[in-house]
Design a protein that fits this description.
It is found in: Membrane. One of its GO terms (cellular component) is cytosol. With 405 residues, this protein is an alpha/beta fold. It has 14 helices and 8 strands. The two termini are 46 Å apart. The protein binds guanosine-5'-diphosphate (GDP) and magnesium ion. Magnesium ion (MG) binds next to helix 3.
Length: 405
């Protein structure tokens, strides 16, 4: 199911590009490109998981979704080497390359280690991973992981040669609940001894990865264990997943960030991306307002605001459609006249405050109006606040126009 009304959003962008006069467009294009990349071109993240059987690859996928989508704990290594899976959650999908690590005791019948390497490399020919996650069981961090890291390096090199893009390799220490002391199995792991052991394992992992991969790496400690009975989650030992997801959201290419934030439902990450979108859109709105465009500035401002609100709604798990955004803007009591009202206000203010220098104020009005609308959308969609609270945020932002022209 495509959650993105891509064609209609493209129309909005095309409208803006075709109606903005050249001098505005040149200063606008960088911001428009950001909006286009993040919202109109939004797609599922592609993540390669490298780790031995039992390291917790499938469990990590489930922990990110908060649902038992991937099969865990298979007794035999039945995972064919290098298979892409598409996992579909209620809020979108992830494309996951599940590789078979080296050094495994059992393999699928007839398979050799060379087969595994070859198949993993084949899997990245047509589909380029955005990031490689290297998973190591916390209790295994002292084990011989050199072979596994060589495989990671080979995979990274193959991707880079094939696609001209070197994906970041992120270290994931899994199953930290299993680290000593064994009786501290439930998060949060505030116990000083547990924390010290987690820190030590993280340091070891980072040191080994950096040595063998020849790059600085980020490492994260996680616990992913969940147990379901009759479709109900009866054990939830997830810990550190939000931090990993937030980092992924920042690190993935722009096109994949919204979906990552959406799929995992991590509000902090969603708010962060929303902030970047609001910043870009508000700057673009200010650029439009700074140069008067007879008749067209209102629909251009509104168009950009619709794209921004649409992106924020999508982040929060709503459908990406311009109708929903217009509905929200309408529910705030500003209707499609948002851009228009702002512009009128600017003209009114400029006469009062800066005779002959009105463009400065109107840029400020467009900026803070768009900023306020973005804050309102964050409150409503991401923080689930009532529409009245959202409206208040918009009004507060507008007040800044008067107080800080
Ligand atoms: N205690 C604990 N067990 C885990 C954790 N993550 C995975 N497991 C268990 O480890 C086994 C292997 O996990 P799985 O996700 O299937 O690993 P994969 O082979 O890499 O996909 C399963 O029995 C999981 O339930 C964790 O964080 N803590
Ligand atoms: Mg698995």
């Amino acid at each position: 199911m495509d959650q993105i009304d891509r064609e209609r959003l493209k129309e909005v962008l095309e409208f803006i590009r075709s109606h903005a006069p050249r001098p505005v467009l040149s200063s606008l294009e960088a911001e428009l490109a950001v909006i286009e990349q993040y919202i109109v071109n939004a797609r599922a993240p592609r993540i390669a998981l490298v780790g031995r059987r039992g390291s917790g690859k499938s469990s990590l996928v489930n922990a990110i979704f908060g649902a038992p989508l991937a099969e865990t704990g298979a007794v035999l290594s039945t995972t064919a080497a290098g298979t892409w899976y598409q996992y579909e959650g209620p809020n979108g999908s992830l494309e996951v390359l599940d590789t078979r690590g080296l050094g495994e005791g059992e393999r699928p019948a007839g398979a050799t280690e060379e087969d595994a390497v070859a198949e993993n490399l084949k899997a990245v020919r047509d589909r380029c991973p955005d990031a490689i996650l290297f998973l190591v069981k916390a209790v295994d961090v002292d084990a011989w992981i050199q072979n596994d890291l060589e495989q990671v390096a080979a995979l990274r090199g193959a991707i880079s040669r094939r696609h001209g893009f070197e994906p970041p390799v992120i270290g994931v220490l899994t199953q930290v609940d299993q680290l000593a002391p064994a009786d501290v199995a439930e998060p949060p792991y505030d116990d000083p001894e547990k924390r010290a052991n987690i820190r030590l394992a993280l340091e070891k992992l980072a040191e080994r990865m950096e040595r063998l991969l020849d790059r600085p790496v980020r490492v994260f400690a996680t616990s992913a264990y969940m147990r379901y009975r009759d479709g109900v989650r009866v054990v939830d030992r997830r810990w550190g997943i939000d931090e990993l997801v937030s980092y992924l959201v920042e690190t993935l290419p722009g096109e994949a960030q919204l979906t990552m934030g959406r799929v995992a439902g991590v509000k902090a990450a969603q708010t962060k991306i929303a902030g970047a979108l609001i910043q870009s859109t508000a700057s673009a709105a200010a650029a439009v307002a700074a140069t008067p465009i007879p008749l067209a500035d209102m629909p251009i401002l509104t168009g950009m605001q619709v794209l921004m609100v649409t992106g924020i709604a999508y982040l929060a798990g709503r459908r990406l459609s311009r109708e929903a955004a217009l509905e929200f803007i309408g529910a705030l009591g500003v209707n499609v006249g948002a851009g228009f009202a702002l512009r009128e206000l600017a003209r009114g203010l400029s006469k009062w405050l800066l005779p002959g220098g009105g463009s400065l104020v109107s840029a400020g009005v467009a900026y803070w109006g768009t900023y306020g609308l973005g804050q309102a959308a964050v409150a409503y969609y991401i923080e689930n606040q009532p529409i009245e609270a959202a409206r208040k945020l918009l009004e507060q932002s507008r007040d800044r126009i008067v107080k800080k022209p």
